[in-house]
Each structure stands twice: as C-alpha cells, then as structure tokens.
Amino acid sequence: MTTPIFVWLRRDLRLADQPAFRAAAAKGPVIPVYVLDDEGAKHRRMGAASRWWLHHSLASLAADLERAGSRLILRRGRSEEVLAALAAETGAREVHGLHHVEPWWRNAERAVGKLLDLTLHHGLYLAPPGSVLTGGGTPFKIYTPFWRALQERMPPAPPLPAPKLTAPENWPASDKLEDWQLLPTKPDWAGGMRAEWTPGEGGAAERLETFTRRVARYAERRNLPAMLGTSRLSPHLHFGEVSPAQVWHAVANAGGSVATFLGELGWRDYAANVIHQFPNYGARSYKEEYDRLPWRTGPEAEADLAAWQQGRTGYPIVDAGMRELWATGWMHNRVRMIVASFLIKHLLIDWRRGEAWFWDTLVDADYGQNAVNWQWSAGSGVDANMFVRIMAPLTQSPKFDAAGYIRQWVPELAKLGDAEIHDPGLLRPRGYPAKIVEHTVGRARALAAHAALKAG
Ligand SMILES: Cc1cc2nc3c(=O)[nH]c(=O)nc-3n(C[C@H](O)[C@H](O)[C@H](O)COP(=O)(O)OP(=O)(O)OC[C@H]3O[C@@H](n4cnc5c(N)ncnc54)[C@H](O)[C@@H]3O)c2cc1C
User: Fold this and answer.
1) Is 248 a catalytic residue?
2) Please, which residues have CB within 8 angstroms of residue 182's CB and are 6 or more apart in sequence?
3) 110, 235, 257, 442: which one has the fewest Cβ atoms less than 10 Å from its Cβ?
C-alpha cells in the first residue's frame, strides 16, 4: 500500500500553478484537505462576505477535484489537531502546503510542523514575502524601492499546469460543506454577490481572460469608477484561485499600460512584505502616536459610523461606494480611498473601525492589503503618506467622472444632472440625507485633532 500525502489548503484554492499539489502528486496518492480553522484565540475570524466566497470556492474546487478523480476532504478545528487526527486515520505523515503570511497562519504552520513532516512552498506572491531586500539585506519599508527591487526578479517562473492526481486506496470521511453554514440565510443578503461573481478557479480564469483584452487601457480607465477599467481579480487572488504568476504571464505582452497594472500587483506583494515584518499591522498604528489621536467615540460618533456603513452620509460618492460594497462585496479602489479618508478625517473615527467593516463586508478582505491601505489612508503607516493630506470628496467625484457610478448606486439621485449629482445642495431630493458634516467643518476638526496630537 502506498502511503498517501496531504495537501493542506487554505487560501490557495486552485489546481494549476499550485506547487503543493505538484510536489505531493509527484510522490504518491494525494489527499487534499481544507481545514476550517478560524476560531482560535489569535485567529481573525473570516468576515461574512469572505465566508460566502469560501463556500462557493470550496464547492468549485471539490467539483474540479472530482473531475480529476480526486476529492476534497473538509474538516473543522485547529489545523494541527485535525491534520494529526487525519494522519492517524490514514497513515499519512507528509504534508505539503503554501507559505501564508498572516500571523495566525504562520503560527499554525509552526504547530503542524511540530507534529508532521510539513513542506511549505511559495506560490501566493510574485516573490516570497521577506525575500526582497535592500542592498544592506534588510526588508523594504517603502513601496517604490520595493517595487524596483522586485521587478529585477521578474518575470516570475512560468505557471505550472495542474498535476495528474492519484487517489488513495481509502478516503477519510469529510464534513459536508453545507453543515458549515458559511452562507447567509436569514436574511439572504448575497443576491448582489451571486450576480457579480463566480468564485473558483474557472471563474478566475474567465475574469483573467476578459481582462487581458482590456489591460492595455488600464492606466486611462483604472481611476474611473463608472467604467469597468480594473481587473476585479482581487477576491480570486485573495483565495488563491489564480496565482499572481498566472496573471503576470497572461497580461505581460498585452502592450499599452500593462506596466501600470503590474505595479498594482506589486502593491499586493508589498502589503505581504509589510505584514511579514509587522504582523500586528492590522491592529496597531505603525506610528504609535496615532493610536492616541483624539478619535471621536460615543453615541454621535457611532451614529456617524452607522451612516457611513449604510451609505447615508449625504456625500453621493461616499454613499455610492458604501452601497456598492454592501451589495456586491467589492468597491472600486478610487472610491475605497475616498470613503476611507472620509471616515478617518471628516468623521474623525479610528481607522480600525473602517478596517473592521471592510474585513466583514469585502469579498477580497485581505489582512495585509486591507491594513496597509487603511494605514496609508490614515497616515499612520510605514509609508510616507500624511494624515494632513485630506481628500475632498466633492472634488474627487467630478474629477473622476463618477456621475454614472452615483446614478447606479444611489438611485434617489439618478434624475439629477451631471453638474448637480456630485453635490446636490438645494436640489437634494426627499429621502436623501443632508451632509452629516460640512467639508470645511470636518476638515478643520481633523486638522485640530492632529495638531493636538503633535502638541503632545
Ligand atoms: C481602504 C482600502 C482598503 C483595501 N482593502 C483591500 C483588501 O482587503 N483586499 C484587497 O485585495 N485589496 C484591498 N484594497 C486595494 C484595492 O482597492 C483592491 O485590491 C482593488 O480595488 C481590487 O480591484 P481589482 O482586482 O479590480 O484591482 P486591479 O486594479 O485590477 O489590480 C490588480 C490587483 O492588484 C492588487 N492591488 C491593486 N491595488 C492595490 C492596493 N492599493 N494595495 C494592494 N494591492 C492592490 C489586487 O490584488 C488587485 O486584484 C484596499 C484599498 C483601500 C484604499
């Protein structure tokens, strides 16, 4: 009897260009295992939108594995305990997986490594986090030099095809996906997500294919929320349904502004590089004094936070973004920057409250990318952005031609003309809220709080 080998899956849910599958398949029969492990004390429990995505991604992977003559074994609990129990059941000792950068996954990797023969491969990023170093051998803190150094190591190795899998003589039992209750039921708020997304390796490949026809015009369209200018690959990349190397090689020869797009993939690697250095980045301001900024708290601040979450701030571009997020689990990057700045500066609410809302509602919620971008918006991060750079939503909205976007997501305003829709003023229809804070008032309050912080 040949001893089977585990492939331990987390957010690397694909068969092609998946080095753990390839290495395991080369050695013997493979048992692919997904362990639902996000209840531990140091784990960040996945948000509701991520759980929705995960359900469908696992269903898709299970179907792909069945077609390849294999199966997906689902178990729930602490990774090391589950894998050790499965080892006792099956006789397997060897585990292959991909390196993950989140602090809880790094803990789990250490724990599994103590009990079983674990081999970790790289495959989630263009380059292994922690491996892109300055001339002095230290990790980069700033994006631009990081990207310059990363590019010197590009292109990534050509993607690997899906391996041929051999089944073990006996399969261990699997949980039923439905029993994990990852999908919302009462109420079922996922209709907008079902309409927008096809989780899984097949859905990712389709998105990538259609995007390769648009990538040449990426630079001119990427900041316009009313256009389909970006790839919308982020949730697929987050769940590992497509590898960044596959994306790189698919677009590299498309011409036009492909370099701008590859630079965004570089931001994804940069975020992982920051988390690798500062595992607590999602919980604490890198510039520690920002945790002492006199952030607003109490009932009024809570009411403002709720208005922001519900898309009822009276700022059409902010409200459109927050409603797009609620309906589809995704928001355009330009609008993410605007709503984040608005929460932190105009409402003077701690960036971590916004980070937490995004974590729960984004289908692409990613510990590194979310934290790096929120700390960038707050000016509290490791990069050079400053708190006092305050985005003006009413200027951003016409500048990036957001009228059509606002009409789509804030239907109360749909009848307003292009000149008024960004700031309805006296034309504000009944049912649409007045501004919760005037721009100049919010701006002055934020600058005063910052000055107080600096004065000590
Ligand atoms: C406040 C805030 C929070 C964010 N939270 C997340 C998050 O939790 N998860 C997430 O994937 N992205 C996050 N982003 C980054 C960015 O908004 C999304 O990656 C992007 O909008 C996804 O759309 P796309 O796939 O069409 O991107 P494209 O423009 O097509 O870019 C391609 C890929 O590059 C990566 N990328 C693009 N922009 C960034 C960026 N600024 N930082 C890091 N990686 C980037 C993504 O993986 C993206 O899929 C956040 C941005 C802000 C301002």
Assistant:
1) no
2) 51, 52, 54, 55
3) 110
196 is catalytic: no
Q: Which residues, including other chains, have CB under 8 Å from residue 84's CB and lie 6 or more apart? A: 115, 116
- Catalytic, 333? Answer yes
374 a catalytic residue? yes
Structural domains in the chain? 1-123 (3.40.50.620), 125-156+201-277 (1.25.40.80), 288-455 (1.10.579.10)
Q: Check pocket membership of 70 for ligand 1, CB cut-off 6 A.
A: no
**What residues are paired with 74 via a beta bridge?**
34
Answer whether 26's CB lies under 8 Å from 166's CB: no
Per-residue pLDDT tens digits for 119-152: 999 999 999 999 999 999 999 999 999 999 999 9
Does ligand 1 come within 6 angstroms of the Cβ of 324? no
Ligand 1 contacts CB of residue 243 (under 6 A): no
CA 39 to centroid of ligand 1, rounded, Å: 26
Asked whether 362 lines ligand 1 (CB < 6 A), one says yes
Whole-angstrom distance, CA of residue 282 vs CA of residue 292? 16
Q: What percent of the chain has pLDDT over 70?
A: 100
Give catalytic status of residue 107 as yes or no: no
In one-letter notation, the amino acid at residue 369 is Q
The terminus-to-terminus CA distance of the chain in angstroms comes to 70
pLDDT at 39: 87
Q: Tell me, in angstroms, the distance from the centre of ligand 1 to residue 260's CA.
A: 13
pLDDT attached to residue 165: 98
Rounded to whole angstroms, the Cα distance separating 249 from 242 reads 12
Whole-number Å distance, alpha carbon 369 to ligand 1 midpoint, is 7
Does residue 334 line the site of ligand 1, with CB under 6 A? no
Does ligand 1 lie within 6 Å of residue 49's CB atom? no
Closest by CA position to 281, among listed 378, 365, 367: 367
Q: Which of 267, 385, 412, 420 is catalytic?
A: 267
Stated pTM of the model: 0.98
**pLDDT band at 454; cut points 50, 70, 90:** confident
Does residue 41 surpass a pLDDT of 90? Answer: no
DSSP code at position 236:
H
Give the nearest ligand 1 atom to 362 CA. 8
Q: Is 211 in the pocket of ligand 1 (CB under 6 A)?
A: no
Q: Residue 305's pLDDT is what?
A: 98
Strands in 5-9's sheet, in edge-to-edge order, are 73-76, 30-36, 5-9, 94-98, 117-121
Q: Show the tokens assigned to 302.
A: 């809570």
Can you tell me the mean pLDDT for 235-244? 98
Amino acid letter for position 267: W
